[in-house]
C-alpha cells in the first residue's frame, strides 16, 4: 500500500491563525521523540502495533488484543464462573425454600395440635356439665 498523497493535517504556512493573532512559532517536525512504528511506510496507531509483551502468567499478549485461544479460554472461565455462581444461588434458594416448607409444616402441625387440645377441653367441659346436670336431676328425684 502506498502512502497517502494528501497530507493528514493541513500545514500552517502563515504566521497567524484565522483570527488574526500570531500562531505558534515552533514548528513540529518529523523528528519527534515519540515515534510511532511504521506500517507500510505509514505511522500506525499504537493499538495495531504487534508488540508482544508478557503478563505475569507468562502468556504472550499482543498489545491491545488477546490471542483467540486466550479469549476463548477467558470466555469459558467466565461462563464457568457464572454457572458456578448461579448454581450456588439456586442451591441457596432451594435450601431457603426447604426451610420455609419445614417451618410451614411445623406451624400447621402446631395449629392442628392446639385445635385438637381445644376440642378435647371442650368435650371435657361438656362432659362435666352433663355430669353436673345428671347429679342435680338425681338429687331432685331423691328429694
Strand/helix succession? EEEEH
Structural class label: mainly alpha
Major sheet size, sense and barrel closure = 2 strands, antiparallel
Q: Report the radius of gyration as a whole number of Å.
A: 46 Å
Name the features.
single chain; 143 residues; mainly alpha; two-stranded antiparallel ribbon; 1 helix; 4 strands
How would you describe the overall organization of this protein?
The chain has one helix spanning 68-142; strands spanning 38-39, 42-43, 52-54, 60-62. By secondary structure, it is mainly alpha-helical. Strand 3 (52-54) and strand 4 (60-62) form a beta hairpin. The termini are far apart. The mean pLDDT is 76.
List the helices and strands and how they pair.
Blueprint: E1 38-39, E2 42-43, E3 52-54, E4 60-62, H1 68-142
Antiparallel strand pairs: 1-2, 3-4
Quick summary:
This protein is mostly helical and 143 residues long.
